[in-house]
Amino acid sequence: MCGIGGYLGPASHSALMDTARTLASSLHHRGPDANDVFIDAADGNNPGLALAHTRLSILDLSELGAQPMSSADQHFTISYNGELYNYLELRQELIDAGRQFVSESDTEVVLQALIHWGEAALSRFNGMFALALWDANERTLTLARDRFGIKPLYYTYNDERLVFASEIQSLLSVDALDRRLSLQGFYEYLYFGNALGSETLFRDCSKLPAGSVLTLSPGQPPELRTFWNPEQQALETHTEQEAVANIRQHLSNSVKRHLVSDVPVGLFLSGGLDSSTLCALASEHYEGQLATYSVDFSGSSAHSELDVAREVAKCFGTEHHELNVTYDNLESLLDKMTTAHSQPFGDAANIPLYLLTEQLPDSVKVVLQGDGGDEIFGGYKRYRLLEHARLCQLICSLPLMRRELPLPTSVLRRGHRMLKALGSASDAERCARLLTEEPGDNAVMELISEPLRGKLMGHDPFRRYQEVVSTLPDKVRNDPQQLMLWTDTRILLPDHFLEKVDRSTMANSVEVRVPFLDTELTDYVMSLPAKLKLQGSSKNLLRKAMADQLPDSVLHGPKYGFGVPYVEWLRGPLAAYAKERLFADNSLMAELFDQKALQRLWDDHMSGSADRGFMIYKLLMFALWAERFNVTLE
Residue 387 pLDDT > 90, yes or no? Predict the structure, then answer.
């Protein structure tokens, strides 16, 4: 795992070198083991190139695996962040085709595969990656990102130059961004707690979408193409028995691949179905005793799964560790998360993940985690509720349901919101509203200052959902459950959960691998119809695939997540701090938000008459980001 960055444009050799070194320095936490740069100076009208790389050594720890890495003839140079789990198989194919290797690293396999197969190689990669490939002869730069967006890549472009990096803070370190707010990203953030698709909250900063390639050639604007999306999957008919047997085999193969490493591999064990599945299968394949890590959050009112995690660890004979995490010094902690993401991030679950990796021993560089299991196996309640989507549309067409109803309890308000979401007129709007906790458009727009409302009305916070749904075939769009499953793999996974995992863990130089997003496994599971996944209990097929290995406490236990008590914080230890940031004079907050509406929001939450903790937390993280990075509206 690594950090990458680069610059393509007019610049002297010394300026290119300075840029590359600055980028590498800003990415040190992503690769503390080594760093290097590559310079191809400008020649006549041709732009110059700088590549930077920081290395977290996982495979082939020798200098032969160092990057940036060039081909023997210096025609191609790569800077690559990720892990390729099928690199040994691809390496043999390439050797059989006459390619020669000098290292044992997966980086050289990626380089040689791109040279030999071109862009088609990307679809053959089973792994997580973000990469930059330089063609010195054609003066062409290619950027690519894995199919689910496990690894990040950001860029900014104007007519003269392109700058890219694994993290936004690296672009800021070389003054590549002008720090103006993106209204589209801002509008999306208010609903979902993060920007979606190619958007960020910086106006001239873009995120390379998952499963995409960006090419920049001399005299041409950047060309963005997609090399993978779920609509390429053909839905197939399988019996449940066939599906369960195939899933078990694919899962086992995936975990075995994800354990390939030249350093020890550990596992985050929560005691839930997903992490326990990984524990069972990793214990079969790992050479030596698998180290597992569970966490206890002091001061949290959330349910603890430590007892179940202990039971699973004992069942599979792991070297089990329990880490106690405390939410001390919250203000400093929120500042660290703001820096790690370089833009506001509204999901407080990044905090325990950051604290957990912060406490890991220095010897632990690689950890398996269960992300992706809910999205591909159907683990969320909303998937099952979507069975009644058509009925909800009829109910919501009634005149009474078109009004904003004064509901006395949070449970009733939540139920009303879910009903209206399920009954949305369009497929894209239904998917979007099921993923936002905001009760309605008025609840968001009333917070916005009067001068800004008109500008925001020109943007659509659900635009990314419209884009994704419009690409899907009718047979998927006509099945609300299948549509939600596939949409989540295109939006919720890359833009929310995988961003959270990457920033929270790489801030502490820890590589997290996600076996549930293995290419062969997801190709198979995503080909199964939603009805087969959702009949019976939650994640029915996964439970049955693991029924003979996991204890009943896991197979039939309730689902829990990281419970972060941010609602309690905002009424307690963070109250004064949050209020000061939200109502600061002469700040971007004062320019963007209606102060009276903001005060009502605050008073309602503090009095307990309404739970608006999520919106207040989003606004607090936005305020901290705007202050930290000197963000402006214009």
Answer: no
